[in-house]
Amino acid sequence: MIPVERTYLMLKPDAVQRGLCGEIISRFERKGLKLIAMKFMLIPKATAERHYGEHKGKKFYDSLISYITSGPVLAMVWEGKNAVSVCRAMMGKTDPQDSAPGTIRGDYGMDLGVNVIHGSDSPESAEREIGIFFKPEELVQYERSVERWIYE
Ligand code: DAT
Ligand code: MG
Known about the structure:
Blueprint: E1 6-11, H1 13-17, H2 21-31, E2 34-41, H3 45-51, H4 61-68, E3 73-79, H5 83-91, H6 104-108, E4 117-119, H7 123-133
Antiparallel strand pairs: 1-3, 1-4, 2-3
Bound molecules: 2'-deoxyadenosine-5'-diphosphate (DAT) and magnesium ion.
2'-deoxyadenosine-5'-diphosphate (DAT) binds next to loops.
């Protein structure tokens, strides 16, 4: 049985501007996660507010919304066994100053408000966030021939 947990990952405007998308995508590919959707886009303000709704009212909320809408992002859906927690571990802690070397934020980031990547924090958040950025028909179903070399 091939595992199907999904997570929503988003390369933030700083990752796009700094030309880091290819390197970061490579990490998830090499890990064995399966890409099922990708969209390069400018996030409308209302969509950003929906995505970050849980942070409304916090002191960093306005700057978070203005940062995430400041330039194009690369929105993606990846699938795999425990995809949510596996990707969060690969991303590192929220503040790049605290993220371990070897993690994405640890290797590419310097500051909390410019921390390179978003990843869902639970399977429920993932389903909610995927629904904000993708229509069901935009999630591409396909078979990978290498699956048996990735999962026992
Ligand atoms: P994560 O992105 O690791 O899930 P989060 O959901 O707590 O972290 O916060 C969303 C984003 O908001 C985070 O990536 C960076 C920013 N942020 C979080 N806490 C912050 C703070 N105390 N000051 C400034 N920005 C903050
Ligand atoms: Mg979060």
